[in-house]
Amino acid sequence: MGDRGGNPGGGSVAPVAAKTRKRRAYLYIFNSIAAIASVLCVYVVNTVGTIRTIQILVGADTASSTRATNGHHDGYKSYYAPYLLREIAATPATVQARIDAVLASGKKVGYLEMDPVDAAGSGSLATSFRQDNCSITFNETTDRIYKEMYLAKTLVPMLLAGSNSSLSLADNAAMIIVDCSYEGRAKLDTTNIKLHVVDRQLQWFATYQLQTIMANIPARRDTMPTGTASYTNLTLSSLVLEPGEQPDRGRDALAKVSSTEVPAVHRLVSSRGFPFNAAPFDPVVIHSTTDTGAWNTSVVATGLQMVLQGFGGMYRGSQNEQANYKTFVWVLDPDPIQVVHTFEFVEVGRTKNSWAWGQALISGFLSFGVLTSTIMACIISRNIFKATQVRWIPDISPSVQSGILFRGILTVVAWWIDGWWAVQEWCFQQGNVRKGLLDMYVLTDSVKSDCLSLFLAGASFIASRLHLRINPAVPVVIYLIVYSQRAAIVAAMGILSSRADVELDANEALNVVLSETAGLDMWMWHEKKDFNATVVFNELSWMMLALVLMLAYAIADKLYTVYFTDHVTEAKTTRKTAGGTATNPTTAGVASQGGSSGTHDRATCFETSTGEYLRHKYGLMSYHENYLFIKGLKYASPSGIWTSGWVVVDDKFLFRTDDIMKVCANIVLRHDIFRAHCHVIADNQVDKTVIRVFRKDITLAQLFNLSLRPLA
Fold first, then answer.
1. Can you tell me the distance from the alpha carbon of 160 to that of 122, in angstroms, rounded to the nearest whole number?
2. pLDDT greater than 90 at residue 397
């Protein structure tokens, strides 16, 4: 008997080959599942993006009901005033002596200061008054509204007159207090101001919060600027010190002091035309609030109805065409100590783009393609298993690969249709968040979906030019990781950071309308007509990094394929399969034992009939066998046919997947609106003749009897 091994060491060939086949089978399954998961991820991103785009198309805001508390809270804090109240409660004589000293010097304004805190956040609890200005001047121009000349001679007398106060600053009965720690002053905001007025005998402490906003007067069909102020009078005898340890300035913003006057009583006064003229302040009362939190008010003296609300943001054309803005009022807090500490705004963001229909159609089209391909793939997989007991793992990546370059171009066209508003709005929001400027309300999923389409188009182009098949999971993972870190990437390596920051600051400044007076300015929205390429390119730096990473991966993959693998594109191992493909793919190897040397190079009948040459298919798709060799004959594999965009219908027709949906639409609509064509299959060979399919030629049951099998 001869040696069973054939030669020394030959007995190990079969186990090694079996292990190789098993490893390749697991790798094939992993790649297929990764491709499916990535395409489903694309579907989710695009579907959510489509929903958000439709919301933007009709208009969306942050208010989910009529309650203003659903809005976003923002504002400015004053850190020294609560500690002054604590001193008044603990040592009133000391504070009164300091007030007398300021008034005796002929000054009407005391600038409240405290010693700086140390690194641990602790510091002296004692306050002091400066008589001329704060120790730190952030900006001479914006600090003008805190000058004594304006406060004592103009603004405070107007506020006192509007609140029907019998108090007069002329007789030194009270002193104006400016808290030098007020954040609005540090941020150079000249559209609002917070002041305190304390009487000389320390009986009461009034807090005024004034903001320039808009008044809509329905009876006159008019909208005009106004200065609206809320004020509260705190009886100083109501102050109570909390027992226990001394407050820590780093933690206890309210200085561990409270008041028994709860809730606080807020009163409003409004000056129509302020700050552009010195119209008197009139008492107003709030009757109700609107969906966005605006105050429905009336003037006490005349009964004039006004809707008071602030606006900030940008628009193009009109606020109902393309706009992104925030409306706001401020919180009338029931805690009088909180009123002293915080000037808090309730903001409701709104976004609208009536030109976003192009984005909605494109995103929806991609999601629809993924959904229909997934359904067809599941039907095919089921039918193959029923017929052959072979488990065919569907590759739904063709639904992304098919026409992805065209969809990328359409995305840019959609942005062009809306005047680049969508991408510019999104980029301004990203930049504003990065710089701590006006936070805009943007549904980011819309542009996230658009950028994903553009990135996949770029990845497909790279793969096609390098003649590669790249699993779609690779670009999807790269995109999601880079997108999640976009803020850090732009902050660290923005391509135009310095210039973009200047543009962002300039856009923020456009919300301020200068009054050309010594007093406050007006805060309101502004029209943005131009396209700011500097901000857009800078805020999309992360997208460029993602494309660079994709290119680097593709080049590395190409080098590995060329130098370290057998990179023949079609499998050449004989497969004894009657239909479908098994879950263990065979990669390029030796020639089939039963075929001639020319068999492997000759195009199949499927390829010559359809013009789809499987070996030349590149782009975003998982690797699969292009061909099967059965009894020495070359067949187009089921996976190769599917990836090319074709499917077998009713076991005798070869349809493009797009044409199936066209015929389905014709049947449902009962009219042959869309032209659809197919090939006839006879003896596993595809007829070269293309025939048109009418709705009367096939039923829905036949149309969705989908399968795949090797075709010669």
1. 37
2. no
Question: How confident is the model over 271-296, as pLDDT tens digits?
Answer: 999 999 988 999 999 999 988 889 99
158-172 burial, b if ≥16 CB within 10 A, otherwise e?
A: bbbebbeeebebeeb
Label the pairing between strands 526-527 and 305-316: parallel
The alpha carbon of 77 is separated from its chain's Cα centroid by a whole number of angstroms, namely 28
Q: 313 with 323: CB under 8 angstroms? A: yes
> Which residue, 100, 73, 108, is CA-closest to 201?
100
The answer for 543, left when phi > 0, alpha when psi is -120 to 50, beta otherwise, is: alpha
Cβ–Cβ < 8 Å for 146, 134: yes
Helix boundaries (H) for 246-356: 336-341
Tens-place pLDDT, residues 28-69: 788 888 888 998 899 999 999 999 999 999 998 886 433 334
Q: Give the DSSP letter of residue 172.
A: T
CB atoms within 10 A of CB 670: 8
Give the pLDDT of residue 573: 38
Q: Is the pLDDT of residue 459 over 80?
A: yes
The per-residue DSSP string of 591-613 comes to PPTTS-TTTTTSPPHHHHHH---
Residue 408 and residue 458 in contact, taking contact as beta carbons nearer than 8 Å: yes
Which residue, 245, 163, 242, 243, is CA-closest to 204?
A: 163
Distance, CA of 692 to CA of 28 (rounded, Å): 37
What is the DSSP code string of 403-469? Answer: THHHHHHHHHHHHHHTTTHHHHHHHHHHHHHHHT-PPP---HHHHHHHHHHHHHHHHHHHHHHTT-E
- Residue 426: closest CA among 409, 404, 445: 445
Check pLDDT > 80 for residue 400.
Answer: no
41: nearest Cα among 553, 479, 506: 479
**E strand segments, 99-246:** 109-114, 127-130, 174-179, 192-199, 204-217, 222-235, 239-241
Counts of helices then strands in the chain (DSSP H, E): 21, 29
- CA gap 546, 480 in Å, rounded: 9
Burial class (CB in 10 A: 0-12, 13-18, 19+), 267: middle
**pLDDT score, position 369:** 82
Phi, psi of 667, deg, nearest 5: -65, -45
The pLDDT confidence band at residue 399, using thresholds 50, 70 and 90, is low
Strand partners, 194: 209
Take residue 482 and report the two structure tokens written for it: 């880079």
The total of other beta-carbon atoms located within 10 Å of residue 270's CB is 25
As a whole number of angstroms, the distance between CA 106 and CA 169 comes to 11
Token representation of residue 144: 């003008």
Alpha-carbon distance values, 41 to 243, 409, 469, 597 (Å) = 57, 21, 19, 44
User: What pLDDT score does 693 carry?
Assistant: 94
Cβ atoms of 359 and 450 closer than 8 Å: yes
Q: Poorest-confidence range of 101-115, 282-296, 505-519, 554-568?
A: 554-568
Residue 561 has pLDDT above 90, yes or no: no
Phi, psi dihedral angles at 289 (to 5 degrees): -125, 155
Closest CA to 666 of 637, 696, 630: 696
| Mean predicted lDDT score pLDDT of the chain | 86
Predicted pLDDT of residue 473: 93
Structure tokens at 238: 């109501």
- On the question of pLDDT at 253 being above 80, the answer is yes
Is residue 180 predicted with pLDDT exceeding 90?
A: yes
Distance of CA 376 to the CA centre of its chain: 33
**Contact between 659 and 646 (Cβ < 8 Å):** no
Residue from 467, 446, 210, 207 nearest 341 by CA: 207
Q: Is 245 exposed, middle or buried (0-12, 13-18, 19+ CB in 10 A)?
A: exposed
| Pairing of β 469-470 and β 619-620 | parallel
